[in-house]
Amino acid sequence: MTTLLLDGGPTAPDAPVTRTGGTPLAPTGTPWPTCATCTAPLQFLAQIHLGDLPGHTAPTPGVLALFMCANRPGQCEQWSPTAGGNLALLLPADHLEPVPAPHGTDPELLTLGAVRAAVPTPTPPPPGATVLGRLGGTPDWLQYDETPDCPTCTRPMTFTAELTEGPDPATAMNFGSGRAYSHTCTPCGRAALLWQC
Description:
Blueprint: E1 3-10, E2 19-20, E3 25-26, E4 43-49, E5 63-68, E6 86-91, E7 97-98, H1 107-110, E8 116-122, E9 131-135, E10 158-164, E11 179-185, E12 190-196
Antiparallel strand pairs: 1-8, 1-9, 2-4, 2-8, 3-7, 4-5, 5-6, 9-10, 10-11, 11-12
């Protein structure tokens, strides 16, 4: 079963909803993550409430926070689930607060140009709707199956969400005109992000 993520329009930068852009929410004391290759702060792309996944019942199991390096496009292997040029964090659902931005960093490199709510909607979408991605089901790979293995238990991770760049340049995530795929291993508390074009 698949649930689409439709563009729900502008929302607050720290809204506790599924959204693209804005400020990441995380437990108190969480530092802004950095790229494992260039060591600069990563750009925050999106947060996804896993309670929005099809067939899930309360309580919400967590929040997926997605980041990618925007400092040296193409040089930090941002497309790879293991190279360190991106990061997916599986966080608890409760007691989250905005992560403070590192001092002296260009805000345009930390966040997208706008914040958009991503409203979970069962398929098919209403006429004229803008689809930002989808939750659950199976990945619609553009190239080949790249399902990552959990670095803790080594089992294949579960497909969680697929994201598109979006129609508005101010909100667009840079996936090389492709799509991003996030996977999780809930028992191990791990997540991964990769993209194909």
